[in-house]
Amino acid sequence: MLGFVPGLGGVPKGRSCSVLRVEAAPASRKGLDLKGVAWKGLIGIVRAKIIRDAEQKHRIPWTKSVQWVRDQKAVLEKEEEALTNPDVDYPEYFLRKFHSYEDGNLDVMAVEELDPATSALACRLYEPEIVSGDWEYQEAATELRNQFLEQIGSYQSLYGGNVEPRRILDIGGSAIHSTEPIADYFPTAKVTVVDLSPKYLALGVVRGRQKGLLDRIDFLHANAEYLDQFIPNGSVDLVCASFLLHELPTTATTEVLKQVLQALKPGAGLAITDNDPVHDAKIPKLVLGMHYLTEPWKGQYSKLDVQALLEELGFVDVVINQINRKHRAILARKPD
Ligand SMILES: C[S@@+](CC[C@H](N)C(=O)[O-])C[C@H]1O[C@@H](n2cnc3c(N)ncnc32)[C@H](O)[C@@H]1O
C-alpha cells in the first residue's frame, strides 16, 4: 500500500472496524509471548489513531465505507468466483501477513477497508488543505493521481510523440483506484487491471460498474511475473504500476519488469509511481521499523537501484522525478 495501512492480526473478520480488539498472542511453550502481545498492542494503537484521524480530521466516512463493502458481499463473492483463475499459484511473498492483515491482500478486512485506507494515505500528504477545510478527501486522492499522470503526459510528449496509448495495463491495479484516473486521462484507451488478489479485483468490478467504466476497464487475475502467459508480446502501448513495487521482493520486481518489457510495443512506455526512498530515509527508525513489519518488502524496495535495473534489462530513457514529498515517478520506455 502507499505506506502503513491498518489491519489488525487477530481481529475476527466481520467485526466493525471501529471496534478495536487486541487479542492476546498465543502463549509460547516458555510462557507468554510478550513481544507478540506488545506488537499487537502497538498496532492496535496505531490503527485506532489512523481510523480516528481519517474520520475526524480527514472527514473520510470509514465506517460507512466498510459497511458499503459488507453490503456488497453476495455480489463480490459472485464476481470473485467469476474472475478467479484457479491456476494462479500464489508466491510465498504474497501470502505473508501484510499491512497487519492476517491474510494480507487476500484478507476480507483488507478489501473492506481498502477504499477509506487509500483515501487516508492521500489525505496525510495534504493535511493542511484537508484540515483547513479547503479540500475534501477526494481532492487529495485526485491530486496524488494527477501528479503521476502529469509525469506520464510530459514523458509521452517528449518520447512518445504525443501518440495516445490505446492498450494500457495497470499492474497491481487492485480495485481501480489507480486505474480510473488513468482511464480518464486516456479516454480512448482500454485498460486491463492485472492483480494477484481476486478479492480486490472483484471490488474493482463492482466499483467500475458503479462508475460506468466496465466497457473500458477489464480485469485479469494473474501474477505480473507471468504476464507473457496472458498478454501477447509487443502488444501494449503503456504499462502503469502504482504502488506495486514496494510490495515486491527484488527478485519479483526483476521478473515483473522483464515481462513488462516483453509486453510493450517497441518505443512504448512504462510508468511507475511509488514511495521515494529519499523520504523514507528521513522516517524515524521506530516508525520505519513498523513499516517494515507491516510491509515486509519495503526495505528491499528502498535499497534497489531501479534506474540501474531498468537499464540492465534493456529499458531506455529512464527518468526519475519526485512528485510530492513522499513519492516519485519512474518512467522508461522500450527501445524503438
Ligand atoms: C498497494 S496496492 C496498489 C493498488 C493501486 N495500484 C493503487 O495505486 O491504489 C498493490 C497491489 O499489487 C498487487 N500485487 C502484489 N503483488 C503482485 C503481483 N506479483 N502481481 C500482480 N499484482 C500484485 C496487490 O494485490 C495489490 O492490489
UniProtKB/TrEMBL annotation:
Q: What residues does the Methyltransferase domain cover?
A: 168-267
Judging by the UniProt lineage, the source's domain of life is Eukaryota
As one GO molecular function, the record gives: methyltransferase activity
Q: Which residues form a coiled coil?
A: none
What protein name is recorded for this chain? Methyltransferase domain-containing protein
- To which species is this protein native? Rhodosorus marinus
